[in-house]
Each structure stands twice: as structure tokens, then as C-alpha cells.
Design goal:
- By secondary structure, this protein is α/β, with parallel strands linked by helices.
- The protein is built from 17 helices and 13 strands.
- About 40% of the residues lie in helices and about 15% in strands.
Length: about 500
């Protein structure tokens, strides 16, 4: 469903006092929003042009699309407006209600209804499934800063020169956004996305909505439940984020989980040395990878038209460390083998997922993706602005996390963001009969984050997938029958399990 790319959060801290009607964590007021809540919704075909594959797929599935008008600034609902793009796939069986979808990122969600209908099986036919692109993303008043890369995520590399290159890139990316979108950036935040979602609810004529969110979408669900108590019916929150570490602390918290999952992948690759040539033991495979990164630090690896240095090589590996099923592990092993050949000075024109990732990381073909993601993450929270802060953290953790520590502790554009957050981040805490799903080996949002969010959402239940290295196990279609059955029973009946559930891989 989604591109195979990494999604991390930037360094974030609560900023100055609120400039919008609602206090952080309190019920949201609707002053002046009546015209938005009662606007007519005009449904239309989803295809926008000959190159619009997303629109064609939605139209083929029978979905329709619409643009919902919302205030740019909820503190001034009589001022400038923007549009939020939604898609809807109507229920075909006895209808339960409307379910809004978000697949994380932060990234687009317009494409999700057909995918989720298939994933949800019988439950999928009982809901109007609504995909909503968050503001700044996809078709919802998109932000495109003209970046030379599709993401701000880089490693600090192996030395100060590499870190300085990563710092210069982060500074340049932030500058580009400030120059192009100074009018929009102050109003892009998860709190405003939640407000937009509630306008969508009202415009669709729903007293309450159901919701399914994974990764960032999980965090958005917690923010919505807190800001708009009583307006959620069923809510499936897959792979949670500890709200206290949303921002740069999230990336830091992910480092250990990724190092451990990568070591387990190395054991898998060692058993297949005759196929990939990376080493016959776990230690040998890890040694090959570390040498590859070291070589890319001495001189960028030549992979076709791309030059890959030590700020990029670890990011490719992280991007492809998606989950622990054999096809995903094979994809990572194939890319690691191509990188190792290049490090040995052998011809290595990139193919497959490696080629896709290098295009994503080293060209501006998908500038809109990273631009919009950073606008939302940096809009939620600021970041320490002193590069030395990050350098000290990188050096302190280098030995413990030799592959991914340089990513988790590195600087990013939020350190140089041209606007300050308009209001503090939401202090999540609400009564919500939600069902949370988390895998113990989650490599993107750690299992501990899911457990913490479960504790903050009173009345929720937790489904744990034990022994799996996978992010968003329900939404990606990992295929664990125990997890899937628990989710589908809850969505169909609206009743949470009597107690938390543990499923085995």
C-alpha cells in the first residue's frame, strides 16, 4: 500500500503558549465553525489526470472524492480557508457507520479505502471507509519545498565531516520551506489535523466516527480522542507512539529496537550466505555491513548514477529493515549485497528496492513527501538549535549503536525551522474504548510506546504480537490470525475484549 521508506520523527519540544481556541489536551471549542460543519459535500471522480494512478485505483474500486473546506487558522475561522481531500468507499452490507483511515508517515491516506476494505474482510463492507490526506500532505493544500531529496532523514556518518554535511543539508531543507511556505507553516500541526478531521465528521453528518490509524495515525487518533471526547466510536490504533517522546526523542527510542532487529536479520542472512555472500555467521554479516558503511565514509560508493556516502548508507538499511518475513528480509539482503559489491570496488548498478530507495533519497522526484512530513512534525514541536548538542549525543552512543545511532541522534530540519509551534502538543489522556495493537519487536514505534498509550487511553485494550519484528502488524497485513481476528471482532461488535490479548508470532 505504501512506499517502502522510513518514517521517523524530528526533535520536538513544547513551545510557547497556545494561539488557538483549545488548550492542549482540553475539549476543543467550535466557535465560528458552524459554516464548516454544515457545508455541502460534493462527491466527484477521484482521477485528476492521465498520470493519477491513485485516482484511477480509487475510481476503479467505486470510491468517490471530495474537498472539505476548513479554516487555515482555527483561531480565526473567518479568515483564509484551505481544502482537505477525502475519499469514500461506501458500505455494501448493513452499515455500521463511517471509519476514517490513516496509515502513518505522516503521509497521504486518500488511497487507503480499497486496501483497508480487503484487509478488514467482512468488517470492511460494513463501514463507509474514508481516507483523508492530512493538511500539507497529498491533495490537502500540499507543501512542496523544492527539496533535492524526498526525506530529511540522514545519518551523521562516521566523523565530523559527515555530520557537518548532514547539518548543512538540514539547514538548507528548512530554509527552502521557509522561503516557499511561510504563510502555511505556522498552521500545520497534528492538533489542526485533528480539528480538520472533526470538521470532516460534521460535514459528513456523523455524530461520531470510527477510526483506524497506524504509526503516526495512532498518535493522531490519541490526539483526536483527547481533543474531541465522545466523538470516537470504534478506534483501532496500530503501533503506538509514546506522546512524551513524539519528536526527536522518538528517533532516539527506536535505535535499540532497530539494532536488535538488524542483528536478527544478520543471523537470517548468514544462513543464506551461498545466496547473498554476506558472511556465514551473524557476526560476519554485521562485519560486512560495518565495512560497507566505513568504505562509503572514505569515498562515496558508486552505484550506477548515484554516489552513496556514510550519511545515506545506514538510511537505506533502515528503510529496508521493515519486518521479519522472508520476502522482506531477502529484499534487505539483496540491497546489502549490492552495497557490499560497490564497497569492494566491483560494478554495482542498483536494482530493485535499492534503486528505488536511492532515487527517493538522492533526487527531488518526491520532494513533496518529505517536505509535507517535516512541515507537520516540525509544526508539532521545535528542536534544539545547537548542532553541538546532537554531535555530543552521537559520539556518546556510537559504540552502543554502530549502525543506526547516527540516525536516531542526528540533527534534522526542525533544528532550523523558520517558525515556532503555535501551541503546545496535546497531553493525551481520554476515555476511549479503543483497541491497540503492538508487536514486541516493532522497529518504528517501539512496543513500549504502545503500552504507554494504552495506559493513557482509559477503557482501551491491548493486543500484543509477541516475537515479531514488524511495524503496524495489522495495517500492513502481516497475517497473524490471532491479531486479525481480535481486531475484526472488535470492529464488528464495538465491544473491546474482556482483557488484553497476547498473540504469538
Amino acid at each position: 500500500m505504501k512506499k517502502t521508506i522510513v518514517t521517523l520523527a524530528a526533535f520536538g519540544v513544547a513551545a510557547a503558549g497556545p494561539a488557538a481556541p483549545a488548550r492542549a489536551g482540553g475539549p476543543a471549542r467550535t466557535d465560528g465553525l458552524e459554516r464548516f460543519h454544515h457545508q455541502p459535500v460534493v462527491w466527484k471522480k477521484c482521477t485528476l489526470g492521465p498520470d493519477d494512478q491513485v485516482g484511477r485505483d480509487l475510481d476503479k474500486a467505486g470510491a468517490r472524492c471530495a474537498d472539505i473546506t476548513v479554516p487555515l487558522d482555527y483561531a480565526n475561522p473567518g479568515g483564509r480557508t484551505i481544502t482537505i481531500a477525502i475519499s469514500r468507499l461506501r458500505a455494501t452490507e448493513r452499515r455500521i457507520g463511517t471509519m476514517v483511515l490513516n496509515g502513518g508517515g505522516p503521509g497521504p491516506a486518500l488511497d487507503m479505502p480499497p486496501y483497508m476494505r480487503g484487509l478488514m474482510k467482512e468488517a470492511g463492507t460494513r463501514f463507509d471507509l474514508v481516507g483523508m490526506d492530512p493538511r500539507s500532505i497529498g491533495r490537502s493544500t500540499p507543501v512542496d519545498c523544492g527539496w533535492p531529496t524526498a526525506t530529511w532523514i540522514r545519518s551523521a556518518g562516521l566523523g565530523r565531516a559527515s555530520f557537518d554535511r548532514a547539518t548543512a543539508l538540514a539547514r538548507d531543507l528548512a530554509r527552502r520551506c521557509g522561503e516557499r511556505h511561510a504563510d502555511l507553516l505556522p498552521h500545520i500541526s497534528t492538533r489542526n489535523v485533528a480539528r480538520d478531521m472533526d470538521v470532516v465528521r460534521a460535514a459528513l453528518g456523523e455524530r461520531r466516527i470510527s477510526y483506524s490509524g497506524g504509526s503516526y495515525g495512532n498518535y493522531l487518533g490519541g490526539v483526536y480522542a483527547t481533543m474531541f471526547p465522545g466523538r470516537l466510536d470504534r478506534a483501532v490504533l496500530d503501533s503506538g507512539i509514546d506522546p512524551a517522546v513524539w519528536g526527536g526523542l522518538l528517533a532516539k527510542s527506536m535505535v535499540g529496537a532497530n539494532e536488535r532487529a538488524f542483528a536478527r536479520w544478520a543471523g537470517w542472512a548468514a544462513r543464506r550466505h551461498r545466496t547473498y555472500g554476506l558472511g556465514t555467521t551473524r557476526g560476519a554479516v554485521l562485519g560486512t555491513v560495518r565495512r560497507t558503511i566505513a568504505e562509503s565514509g572514505r569515498e562515496p560508493l558508486r552505484l550506477g548514477r548515484y554516489r552513496v556516502d556514510d550519511t545515506v548508507t545506514p538510511v537505506v538499511l533502515l528503510n529496508l529493515l521493515q519486518e521479519d518475513r522472508d520476502p522482506a528480509r531477502a529484499t534487505l539482503a539483496d540491497a546489502a549485497a549490492q552495497l557490499a559489491r560497490a564497497a569492494a570496488g566491483r560494478p554495482a548498478p542498483p536494482t530493485g528496492a535499492l534503486k528505488e530507495n536511492l532515487e527517493f533519497l538522492l533526487t527531488g522526484a518526491e520532494s513533496r513527501y518529505g517536505s509535507a512530513q517535516s512541515a507537520l512534525i516540525c509544526g508539532d514541536g521545535g528542536a534544539p538549535g545547537d548542532p553541538e548538542y546532537y554531535w555530543r549525543e552521537i559520539e556518546r552512543n556510537r559504540a552502543e549503536a554502530p549502525i543506526f545511532g547516527g540516525i536516531g541522534h542526528n540533527i534534522n530540519p526542525c533544528a532550523f525551522w523558520p517558525v515556532e509551534p503555535r501551541e503546545p502538543m496535546t497531553r493525551i489522556g481520554a476515555h476511549a474504548r479503543a483497541l491497540l495493537v503492538g508487536a514486541t519487536g516493532d522497529t518504528r514505534t517501539t512496543y513500549e510506546g504502545t503500552r504507554i498509550l494504552h495506559g493513557l487511553l482509559r477503557g482501551s485494550r491491548l493486543v500484543t504480537l509477541r516475537g515479531a519484528d514488524v511495524h503496524a502488524p495489522y495495517q500492513i497485513g502481516y497475517g497473524n490470525a490471532c491479531v486479525d481476528d481480535a481486531v475484526h471482532r472488535y470492529v464488528l461488535t464495538g465491544r473491546t475484549p474482556a482483557r488484553n490479548i497476547t498473540c504469538e508470532k
